[in-house]
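Q: Convert this sequence to structure tokens.
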Amino acid sequence: MKKTVKYIGLDVHKETISIAVADQGRDAEVRYYGKVAHDMDQLSKIFRKFISQGAELRCVYEAGCCGYPLYRFLTSKGIDCTVVAPSKIPRKSGERLKTDKRDCITLARLHRAGELTPIYVPNEEDEALRDLTRARNDAQNAHKRAKQQLTAFLLRYHIVFPGKSKWSKAYFNWLADISMPHQAQQITLQEYIDTVRTCSNRVDRLTEQIRHFSEESRLNGLIKALQAMRGISLVIAASLAAEIGDFSRFEHPEELMAYLGLIPSEFSSGEKQRQGSITKSGNGHARKSLIEAAQAYRLPARKSRAIQKRQKGLPPEICDLAWKAQLRLCNRYYYLTNKGKNANIAKTAIARELSGFVWAIALELPLAA
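A:
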């Protein structure tokens, strides 16, 4: 008996899931099944009912704050499930009505038509490492804000550090000697100092945990290989590996550049061509890491002691690619800035090309299952 295919659109929220069903066939009706609680057992009962009627299920839902537990649950039951990018869902420009019912019906209909763009779903181990790198990024942002708040407090009372290097041991010794005219101000100063120290310790702890879990991860080989490149140390390498995951899903480096939102936007019509700023679509965490790494290429190409240490034990092909990237990108940065390009624009252009070399290095290594 030939199974009929049912396309299931799921609009997923914290407490509820709205379900729509589209039968196979271009002109078949798309019907709203109803809204159920966000409970895996209840959802499983509904799907078992469809399967008992001889249906093959193909489910789809939008990526969002609820993560991937639903995807993993359905695939573990042998049910085909796709997670799609919300920004790539076709929408009518004049439509001003949005409800859960409409959303799940739209998902079911577009999934049947093959017009949805699936996203890459990491496995649980890769997602855990990704969460750790994002937590460090959040801690670093909190550390930066804490230092800004302390600096602003001192500036209000015109207390200026006489030395050259802030946030050094000498700077904190100088902070300890400051005496404020009022007790409440002294307590405020001490709280700001303690917050800076606490945030700094938190960043250090998370960095050490990234080092530990990277060594145990299936991505360990990729993380070590990426560190052969200038500007990519442990944290950035772990972030790129965890955020992007399987590089082989990109057939060409330009696809990776587009995924990271590093290609220019374009508004062209007829004979008029106009390119704007980068699209900033896709994975912002990986894009930020690459732009941070690109700043290292503003200096002349050389193999520092740190780079040589990171390259120790790596295949010569990867080391050659890393040196080729240095020669190319350092000269490219010099050319762009001498041409009058803004430094930030030049760094973004370097980050775009750097992603291509990262892709090439990743493809040199077989990824562990």
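Strands lie at 4-12, 16-23, 30-37, 55-62, 80-84, 264-266, 275-278.
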